[in-house]
Amino acid sequence: MSHSHGNASSANDPRQPLAAKPYTPRPVAPEDLPVDYSGFIAVILGVSGVMFRYKICSWLAIIFCAQSLANMRNLENDLKQVSMAMMFAIMGLVTNYLGPNRPAAKK
């Protein structure tokens, strides 16, 4: 079978290159975007890291902040949420590692 690049193959080609349009995604309203669960979890973990002084919660909040930053869709709302979660996580780490020690449990 020989492939010819003449008029015979282009005459049988049903595609129309002039009618092709580039793909443009439909605009989605910010209210219709899916919920950013990793940002929400980061806020919850950051707050619990500060309030209850759990180091693991603060570290997990930073990890979830990074995940939320990587998957950010709506810049305005997500950036506010991620920055708040990052503040809580950093505040929790500072108070845990540099703050006064927790009182020892009485026996």
Automatic annotation (TrEMBL):
Gene Ontology molecular function, alphabetical: protein folding chaperone
Localisation per UniProt entry: Membrane
Annotated Polar residues bias: 1-13
GO biological process: protein insertion into ER membrane
Keywords of this entry: Membrane, Transmembrane, Transmembrane helix
Family: Belongs to the Asterix family.
PANTHER family: CGI-140, PAT COMPLEX SUBUNIT ASTERIX
Name the record gives this protein: Protein Asterix
Organism listed in the record: Eutrema salsugineum (Saltwater cress)
